[in-house]
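Quick question, first post here. What does this chain look like in 3D?
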Amino acid sequence: MPPRIIRKRARFFIAIEGESEQSFIKWLQMLSENQLNIHLDTVVLGGGGYKSMLKKAVREHRRRCKTSGHYKDRFLVVDGDRAEQGDWSIEELRHEAAKNKIIVCVQNPNHEGLLFRMMSGEIPDSTSASAKLKSRWPNYKKPMNAGELERQFSLDDLLRVASVDSDLETLLKRIELC
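> Answer (accepted):
Ran it through. Tokens below.
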């Protein structure tokens, strides 16, 4: 009998703001399990400004490459409303991230806004995203775990938003989920 060939998983580095995004990426991993041979390696950055998050992401990527090897792509997932807080604009973040071959994916206006969009298709402003999400999903609490996301949303919900959100579409296309 010939030896069984085990296909190596394509690995992706995904730096994220916090635990909510970590659950979201874990949900993406769950969605991909039956279709794709990928591993989404996440690192939680713990928030901060765009500049400090990028710096932490670059440092963590280098560290993980030494122990884990090569990544097919690398991403930084951030909330769009962080630009209001200051150190860099989204354009500056994208420019600096590109120097390190990191693809920036902005959640508009933030993570709760992304989840609300998957429910309604409507883009809330940053001040109302959480309230609007909780009005449609009364049991929502931050961070919602991947299992709860799986019970609430489908791949179709995700793809519907990706069809009008170029950053989300880029992430999903790169990991071959759409």
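The two ends are 36 Å apart (CA to CA).
The first strand starts at residue 10 and ends at 16.
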